[in-house]
């Protein structure tokens, strides 16, 4: 059991015990809702993990290292930022894919740029944000955040390159 699983297990057990103790059947209803969520998400997860498996087998490692490897410089960081901005999906889809790319040779700086860009500058999220909060807000946030994935990636590459 890894730390993330253990961290999720604790509140799940506490909430189950609390719901069971209430004596109103909420522990069964909670498990049923969780099961329905799992069943509705399972096809997406299966497709995402299948795609990740094929990426890890079919993506030429040397080409990836040339594009976003440790020696790809600013161009690699820019590619990572663009890729992060365009990546669709939530963490269960995107983070395993990014992990696979990192294991295949994407540099530390490019990988950190990729994660930071995906989490802060996703174009899909920007469309929803603009719809609900407004274009002005979205443009201000984007303008302020645009340099940060590159800066964070550059700092990571500079400060931690070559460390395990």
Written overview of the protein:
The protein has helices at 3-22, 26-58, 61-68, 73-86, 91-103, 108-121, 123-133, 135-145, 148-160. The protein is mainly α. The protein has 2 domains: 1-58; 61-164, no CATH class. The radius of gyration is 20 Å and the shape is globular. The mean pLDDT is 91.
Describe the structure in brief.
The protein contains nine helices and no strands.
Key attributes of the depicted protein:
9 helices, 2 domains, mainly alpha, 164 residues
Topology, please?
Elements: H1 3-22, H2 26-58, H3 61-68, H4 73-86, H5 91-103, H6 108-121, H7 123-133, H8 135-145, H9 148-160
Radius of gyration: 20 Å
Q: What can be said about the biggest beta sheet? A: none
- Give the beta-strand count: 0
What's the helical proportion of residues?
Answer: over 70%
In whole angstroms, how far apart are the ends?
23 Å
Low-confidence stretches: none
Q: How many helix segments?
A: 9
The share of residues in extended strands comes to: under 5%
Helix and strand composition category: mainly alpha
